[in-house]
Structures are given as structure tokens and as C-alpha cells.
Amino acid sequence: MAVSGRKKGPVSPAVAGPVAVYPGSFDPITNGHLDIVKRALAVFPRVVLAVAFNPNKDSALFTAEERVATIREALVEFGDRIEVDTFSGLLVDYARRIEAAVVVRGLRAVSDFEYEFQMTMMNRHLAPAIETVFLMAGAQYFYTSSRLVKEVALFGGDVRAHVPPAVRRRLAAKLGTQTGRGRKRR
Ligand code: PNS
After folding, report:
1. Where are the domains of the chain?
2. Cα(24) to centroid of ligand 1, in Å?
3. pLDDT tens string for the chain (186 positions)?
4. Structure pTM?
5. Radius of gyration over alpha carbons of the chain, in Å?
6. Which of 10, 67, 155, 185 has the smallest C-beta neighbourhood within 10 Å, fewest atoms?
7. Is the Cβ atom of 121 under 6 angstroms away from ligand 1?
8. Is 57 designated active site?
């Protein structure tokens, strides 16, 4: 499925240094993810934010196309050193395809560690040449997650501190709530 605008094949190394892929479900992208993008761009010349999707069965709230469109809107301020793409199948196969040498993942609290550790070790087993690098999210994002954002939005709670405006609008449209304004008091 071609939902992204980036050309297939390797990312052009306009600036010297390794290309980093920042993979995730991004269902939806949060301010915590954007914080990691900012940090990744401070370290790597090119970052490809890669939205994982399952063409057969995707339990995501937003389609891959919707996620990409939202992310593009949210990333406007970051310029052209970041690209948005989608992938299905193994992350390491995708990383090889675009010639990314590094996988970037964000870490919040200790609770992320075990899941991330297992994924990193499996990816390392599958592709020893691809290194995973962890960046710590800002402390204000330590409890921000896509799952909680969706749950809070579903029940009309205020998610303004956790997601960019583009996501707030799409959450409200999708869930039919006035997300971010809180519930009307009687
Ligand atoms: O945002 P998420 O859900 O934590 O991202 C997880 C993701 C998409 C990075 C991970 O599930 C993934 O890499 N999926 C692609 C399939 C794959 O390569 N699986 C083996 C990784 S150990």
C-alpha cells in the first residue's frame, strides 16, 4: 500500500551520517512521539518516521492513511530532514530496504524497558548490523501514551496536553466527542 509520498528505495543522504528509522504504531501520534522526533533530529541528519500497519488485520483506531496524514500535519515545523512512510512486515527488512542503519525508540518509564529490550534483542538477532538507539522522552511525557489518549478522548476527557491539534481534531471527528474541551457540566 502506498500511503506515503516518499520515493521507494534508500533515503537520499543529503547530509552525512546514518539514516535513522523511528518506527511505531502512532495510533495516534502524541506529543511524546514529537518530543522523540525532535531529539532524534538533534542526533541524526535524516529520520524516517515509519508507521507500522497490518494489511490483513489492523486493530488500530486510525487507518494507516489517516495516521500518515495526521503525522504530516504535526511534523510541518520539523522541516524536510524527517520523512513519513508506512511499512508492514518485519521492521528490520524495511530498515534494510531504506538503508537505515539505526532504529530509534523512545523510552519513558522503567515499564517500557522489558518490551523494548525484547524487541531490540530480536531485531539484533535478525539484523546484527542495525543498531537500536533509545532516547528518553521529556519528563512531562512520561505518562503520555496513544492508548491512554484514545481512552481519555473516548470518554470526553481533555487530551490537549498530550497530542498536537491535528490529532485532537481527528480524534473528535472519529470518536464524535468534543475532545479537549472536557464534558459539559450540568
Ligand atoms: O508503537 P509501538 O506499537 O510500540 O511500535 C511497535 C513496532 C511497530 C515498532 C513493532 O511492533 C514492530 O517493529 N513491528 C513490525 C513487525 C516486526 O518487525 N516485529 C518483530 C519486532 S521484534
Report:
1. 17-143
2. 6
3. 334 455 566 555 456 789 999 999 999 999 999 999 999 999 999 999 999 999 887 799 999 999 999 999 999 999 999 999 999 999 999 999 999 999 999 999 888 899 999 999 999 999 999 999 999 999 999 999 999 999 999 999 999 999 999 999 999 999 986 555 544 444
4. 0.89
5. 17
6. 185
7. no
8. yes
Amino acid residing at 43: V
Give me 72's grid cell. Answer: 504530516
Cα(94)–Cα(50) distance, rounded to whole angstroms?
9
In this structure, the residue with its CA closest to atom 2 of ligand 1 is 24
Among the listed residues 105, 146, 162, 168, the single catalytic one is 146
The DSSP annotation for 119-134 comes to HHHHHHHH-TTPEEEE
Ligand 1 atom with least separation from CA of 119 = 22
Residue nearest to atom 14 of ligand 1 (CA): 91
Options 3.30.559.10, 3.40.1280.10, 3.40.50.620, 3.80.30.20; which CATH number does 17-143 get?
Answer: 3.40.50.620
C-alpha 97 to ligand 1 mean position (Å):
16
